[in-house]
């Protein structure tokens, strides 16, 4: 089975809290096997599982996504710039300049967020 973007730090948080995988999986409502696969990076956790780590183990939300934020922001920025180029080619539409302004706002936000997470 191919490993995905790792969530092994979820296991670290669980172990540091002193909870067993059986107890956490029961409280979250998933099988112990599913939790083990998530913690090994074999399957991706649902948002409900990630939020459960936040609620149950009191792990800050940014810590739960620490390895994924910059990658996600970078991908969004890339797609926003591609969209801007596409819209520049479509100048015939009467609303294109408003849409370009909105895309520029998104690009600026994403650029700032990436700089903040470096």
From TrEMBL:
PROSITE patterns: HTH_CROC1. It holds the Pfam family HTH_3. Residues 10-64 form the HTH cro/C1-type domain. GO terms for molecular function: DNA binding. SUPFAM superfamilies: lambda repressor-like DNA-binding domains (SSF47413). It comes from the Bacteria. CDD domains: HTH_XRE. SMART domains: HTH_XRE. InterPro entries: Cro/C1-type_HTH, Lambda_DNA-bd_dom_sf. Gene3D superfamilies: lambda repressor-like DNA-binding domains. This is Helix-turn-helix. It comes from Dokdonia pacifica.
């Amino acid at each position: 089975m191919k490993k995905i973007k790792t969530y092994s730090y979820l296991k670290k948080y669980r172990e540091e809290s002193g909870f067993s995988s059986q107890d956490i999986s029961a409280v979250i409502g998933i099988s112990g096997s599913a939790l083990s696969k998530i913690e090994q990076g074999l399957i991706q956790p649902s948002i409900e599982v990630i939020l459960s780590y936040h609620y149950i183990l009191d792990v800050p939300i940014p810590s739960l996504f620490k390895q994924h934020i910059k990658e996600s922001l970078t991908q969004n920025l890339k797609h926003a710039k591609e969209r801007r180029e596409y819209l520049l080619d479509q100048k015939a539409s009467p609303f294109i300049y408003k849409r370009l302004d909105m895309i520029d706002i998104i690009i600026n936000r994403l650029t700032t967020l990436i700089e903040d997470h470096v």
